[in-house]
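During the second year of the project, the team shifted from modelling isolated chains to modelling whole assemblies. The rationale, set out in the original proposal, was that interfaces cannot be judged from single-chain predictions alone. As a representative example for this report, we include one of the complexes processed in the last quarter. Its constituent sequences, exactly as entered into the pipeline, are reproduced here:
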Amino acid sequence: MPVTVRPQRHVIIGGGVAGLTAAQVIRRRDTRGQITIVTEERHLPYSRPGLAYLLAGDVPLSQLFPWTEAELRALQASFLRGRAMALDMAGRVVVLQDGRRLAYDALLLATGATAVLPDIPGTQLRGVATLDQLDDATRILALARRGRRAVVVGGGITAVELAEGLAARGVETHYLLRKDRYWGQVLDPEESRMVERGLERHGIRLHYHTNVVRVLGQQGRVKGVLTEKGKSMACDLVGFAIGIRPKAELAASAGLDVDRGIRTDEYLRTSAEGVYAAGDAAEVYDPATGKHLLDSLWWMAQDQGRVAGDNMSGGSSAYLRDIPFNVTRIGGLITTIVGNVGQGGRGDDDTVSIVHGQSEGWHEPHDSFAVESGDLTSRVRLLVGRETLVGAVIMGDQTLSRPLCDLVRQRVPLGRLRQQLLQSPERAVQILVEYSRRQADRQLQEVA
Amino acid sequence: MFGQLHDQEVRRREALVTGIVTSQPIRCVQCGICSYSCPIGIDVRRHVREGIPVTASQCLTCGQCVARCPRGVLTLESSPIFD
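Output from the structure prediction step:
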C-alpha cells in the first residue's frame, strides 16, 4: 500500500514583509503544503515605509499595495483575519481570538513591532496618534483634515515623518525636543542642524528643551499638551514617536525565550521546537558580535523572512546579519545611514528604544575616527576604522551613497585611501568621488 | 567650468538616448512612487522587486522614476547594446 505523506502545515502570524516573504519561499519549496497567514490587518499587504510618503502626499493610498490580488492568490495561501491569542506548544496549535484552532508543523511569528506611548496622563484621548500601520496613517490624515494645530513628540525617523506629513497637509506643526538637538543618538550636531533647518523650511516650528508631561483634553478629545515648565500649548493632535516595542506577548505567554523581542538563534529558531521568528518582532542572534539585536528595516525583515521560510520548509539556512543601512528622507534631505555611526545606548533624549527604520547595529561600539565634509545642503560623514570604513552618513547629494555603502558593507580594505582621507580630510568628498570613478572604470574594463 | 557643464549635458543626453533604468532592490521599500510617476504607466516597482531592469520598449527614459524615488533605488544607465 502506498504511503501518503500528509502535507506540511505552515502557519505564519503576521502579514508584513517578513511573513509574506516567508510564505513565498515556502511555496517555492513546498508546492503541496498548506500555508496559513494570520493577520490583524484588514488591508492587502502594503508598504509600511511608504506610509510616510502617503502622509506627505507623495503617493496615493491606492499605490501602496505592491502585490496584486492575483499575485497573492498564486501563493495558494489562506489569509485569515484575526488575532492569535495563545500557543499550545505541546499540541502545536495556535488559538485565535474567535476560538479557531490552527494546527501547525512549522510556525513563524512575524508579528512586527508597535509604537510605545509615554507613561504620562492623557495618551488615551482621541487625537493622540502613533504611526505603525496603514490605519494609523489614514486616521492621522483624517485628524489633519479637521485639525489646525499639531504637536509631535519623539525622535528618529518616525517623528520627522509625522511632523513633515502633518505640515504638508497644512497643519500648523510644532515639534518638541527634550534637549538641544534632533536625533543625537545617530546624527552629529551639524547633521542635526541640517535636518532642523530643513524642518523649519517646511514650516515646522521646533521647540527645544521642551518635555511634555501631560496631554490635555476636553470631552475625550485632545486640547493641548502641558510641558514640564508648566506651559500649556493648544493643539488638536499629538503625534508620539518615542520608540517601538516588538510584539512578543504571544511568545512570552507561551513561555518562549523573550527579552526585548522574541529571541532566535542564527537559524531564526525560537526556543520552541518548530517555531521561528522574523522581522521587527525578532531579537536575532548575531554570531559575529555574540549579541541579540533589534532592527526595524524593511530589507532585513525580508531577508529574515527568506531564511525562516527556507528553514520552515526543510532548509538549513543561517541568517548572516548584514551591515545595517537605510536610506530615508528627513527634513527634506535624503539621508543614507550605513554601519556604525552612532553613539552607544538604545534610546536617546527623545526616544526609549529604536524607532521604525532604525537598527541597533548603528549604535554598536566602534574604533574609528570621523571625517566630515560638506556644505549647507549636503554632507558626508565617514567613520574610518583601522582597515575599513566602518560607517557613513550621507546627507543631501547622494552621489556617494552607493560607493560608500559598498565600501562599508563589503568591508573593502581602504589601503591608500585611508592615508589620503587622514592627510586631507577636507578633500574627503573629492577623494571618494575619484575613487568611485576609478572603481566604475575598472568594472567597465572587466565587463569589456 | 563651461567645458565641464558641456560634458555633463552630453552625458545626460547620451543617457536619455541609450539609457535603461536599473535598480538596487535592497534599497527599495516598494512604496510605489516610481510606478506612480511613470508617465506611461510602467510598473517600475515590480521590475525592482523582481530584480530586472526596465527594458520595456515604451520606456521613454525620461528619468521621472529615477528622480522621484526617495531612496536612490533607481539609476539610468547606458544600455550595453550601444557599447
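The first strand of chain B starts at residue 19 and ends at 23. The CA atoms of residues 33 and 70 of chain B lie 8 Å apart.
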